[in-house]
Design brief:
Largest sheet: 5 strands, antiparallel
CATH class of the largest domain: Alpha Beta
Strand content: 25-35%
CATH architecture of the largest domain: 2-Layer Sandwich
Radius of gyration: 19 Å
Structural class: alpha+beta
Number of helices: 11
Number of strands: 14
Length: about 290
């Protein structure tokens, strides 16, 4: 690998470095758990890596409970999130993180890195889509814009980020008060954690005291060009009592989720297998 590294210490330095390299080929590096393997496979000539590992800015690094939700700095590691009390109340998030690679990798990998890699198989990204999270984006003029993470991904390893922008944080909103939640992350792979998902399902359903679904978020990974939020499936399950769902309701829900899937066959699994696995996962969430 042949690249030059620049290590800004402050946000002002970072934005100046981004501005100064608009005509150059640059990438961001934080935990390097995705970047180094990528560059080992395909070396990029003239690449500049803007190293974020030494950046000292709480907006980038901290996890903060706010009145309307939880904000996670893009440079917070997966290990940081597992130790955050407020996040441990969100099963879909914790299960997605725990399914990600090894303990050693989780101590280095960052939330922002998982999002910006924009892999259709991104475990944590899939959970964040189900949670209707929002991305806070900062540009070189110190201006910010907020976009739903559902709209952040534009394809395989592509996002809405412009060359003069960087992801600063991701925000998980308090959807509403609920009596309880039905929340989790299911991943099918050749191995549980070290393997990239063949298909994944993230779900977060909020229920009232009678078991009626009052808010729903369901996302799928590894079965389309990007992680997909299954809006019509969420609309279908809203207002239903999950304790008395009929078999027809469960199958209809699974069918609606599948409308967002366009799996392919590759060396790891066939499109048929991915479809069957996802359909069965959709029905299984109501067995809890």
């Amino acid at each position: 690998m042949d690249f030059n590294t620049i290590t800004p210490q402050s946000t002002a330095d970072l934005l100046n470095v981004i501005q100064a390299n608009q005509e150059n080929n640059f990438r961001f590096g934080a935990g390097y758990t995705d970047l180094i393997p990528e560059l080992q496979i395909q070396n990029e000539k003239g690449l500049i890596v803007i190293n974020l590992a030494q950046l000292k800015d709480h907006d980038f690094t901290e996890i903060k409970a706010e009145k309307s939700g939880i904000r996670i700095g893009a440079l917070a590691t997966m290990t940081d999130t597992l130790s955050e009390e407020n996040l441990r109340k969100i099963p879909v998030m914790i299960e997605a993180i725990e399914s990600l690679a090894s303990v050693q990798i989780r101590s280095m990998a960052t939330v922002g890195g998982n999002i910006c890699t924009a892999s259709p198989a991104g475990d944590v990204s899939c959970a964040l889509v189900a949670l209707n999270a929002e991305c806070e984006i900062l540009n070189v003029e110190h201006k910010t814009r907020t976009i739903s993470i559902k709209d952040f991904f534009t394809g395989v390893k592509t996002t809405v980020l412009k060359k003069d922008e960087i992801l600063r944080s991701v925000f998980i909103p308090n959807l509403e008060c609920a009596n309880r939640t039905l929340s989790g992350f299911i991943k099918i792979g050749n191995r549980n954690s070290m393997e990239i998902a063949l298909a994944s399902l993230a779900y977060h359903l909020m229920l009232d005291e009678n078991g009626i679904v009052t808010n729903a978020g369901v996302a799928i990974g590894s079965v389309a060009k990007s992680i997909m939020f299954t809006e019509t499936a969420c609309e279908f399950i809203m207002g239903k009592n999950i304790g008395i769902l009929s078999e027809a309701d469960k199958e209809r829900f699974a069918d609606l989720v599948m409308e967002y899937a366009s799996p392919i066959s590759d060396i790891r699994a066939s499109a048929w297998y991915r479809s069957q696995a996802l359909w069965n996962m959709c029905k299984s969430i109501f067995l809890e």
